[in-house]
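Notebook B, p. 112. Complex prediction, attempt 2.
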Amino acid sequence: MTKTILILLFILIPIKANALIEVDITRGNLNPLPLAVSPLSIDEESRKGFEKILKKENIGSEISNIVENNLRTSGLFNPLDKKAFLQAPDIANLKPRFEDWNLIKAQALITGKVNYVDDKLRVEFRLWDVLAAKEMMALAFTTVPNNWRRVGHIISDKVYERLTGEKGYFDTRIIYVSEEGPKTQRIKKLAIMDQDGANNKFLTLGNELVLTPRFNPASQMVTYLSYFKNMPRVYLLDIETGTQEVVGDFPGMTFAPRFSPDGKKIIMSFAKDGKSDIYTMDLENRIVEKITNHPSIDTSPSYSPDGKYITFNSDRSGYQQIYVMKNDGSDVKRISFGNGLYGTPVWSPRGDLIAFTKLHKGKFYIGVMRTDGSGERLLTENYYQEAPSWSPNGRVLIFYRETKTNSKGEGFSAKLWSIDLTGYNERQIKTPTDASDPSWSSLLSN
Amino acid sequence: MRLNKILKNTLLVLTACLVLSACATKKEVATDIQGQMQGDVYTGTDTVKYLADGVPDRVFFATNESILTTASRETLRAQAAWLRKNPNINVVLEGHADERGTREYNLALGERRANAAKDYLMTYGISSDRITVLSYGKERPVDSGSNPLAWSKNRRSVTVKAN
């Protein structure tokens, strides 16, 4: 046994030593890796073929633009200016002249080729280590032409994974609440878009107030709160079919819904007589279980990724704080003990951290702590922000931020933002309207 | 538990005194807020509508609280009297929170506030069948300002005719 391990080690070490590029994503990345994304080459016939169907002049460049944009916004990579590229895309994909790419300081190079084959889109791409003058990865896939944006996202995920050692998060979607109108009478609609803001689509018309949509981690279902007929209840929405159904039809308000990690249950709060408790509903047999039983407000529940624990916030101590309990409601432990109020705990998909919103001395913070409450780290401070949601790889948080109005009550806005777990790379995510309550899907291709 | 409550109330009064004395030393702030807030509970009439002559439609709350003030209890007694006189009228109690809290907690807080008003109406003889509670959390502010006075107007329970 020891022998095999030793041999394995010997084999592994030289490979590691050769693979020069590696990106450490556990630190704030102040020196993003310079890399070149060569436009995917395309022959004239294929180009014309796609132009006809997709109305894009050069689908090869379009796909590489998606890859470039994804890698840049991750904050870990610095895609170089295409104008400086010396080698043509088709030749680079066959055999890069590494000296040329080295000259412009690219440490990695992405090349590829697009073909129009039997009405399908065939894409191959390669990732090269420029310094080691080696191919690191080569992949090809075929899909329907309409999937071209997803091809860009999948390539980005593969590159991210190869260079960082962790799964990517680009082939994903974000569901959120679109907001319009004056602050006193906001019109809210469910909306969904690709992680990079493309393909924005509204899922409800805005006739009733909708809040807090959350993805099922196991499928493309969403649970949310709707004020349909002025009765705030938890609903379920199938994004593909558009079917909506009420699941939290209790004699009172149900809210704060989330799926269990296996997608089989919904956990939510039910408010009655001034008390809010946490309940679960099995979606298959509709059996309801009461998880907490306390005269306080218990809400914003979120499961650990193994489903064994639940974190939530409660004001049973007098003020809003974060708690963890077993999934049957036993063993309730308070974990937040810092100064201020703590809310909206969300368990990381990696299991090791809980993200939260903190209110202290009139400022709102997004932060993370270990699941026992230790190691609290505040990532960003602002006038108002809350509701963090994790990227599926647990490296990025998306949340919403509201602005302070002026003395006349003007200037209100709500926008989506993201920040790395490191506290670096804070970015606004552009949406066609104001936006809040974002929820990140799991990877679509798995 | 009871001692806790008492302590909390004393603290509230203390902070209220502190806030007030702080205001007294700063003239500009004082003119803005004076007469409209007690502690951080709204006592003005800007946003108040009337269900009938002398029957205000809403009560106001301190930050994170659902305790009814003396003024709120007076308002609710007037509402109860009006409801007793009009046995065919049903009401919805709409509970609200200010913008300085997380959305989900505020939904629960709005529900708790509206229920505090409901409980009080019930002790004055109004049947629970005639009362529906509806929380809007922080979704429907009356004042879009980002200042303590605006927030105090938004922390409210409003009694609305349902029929």
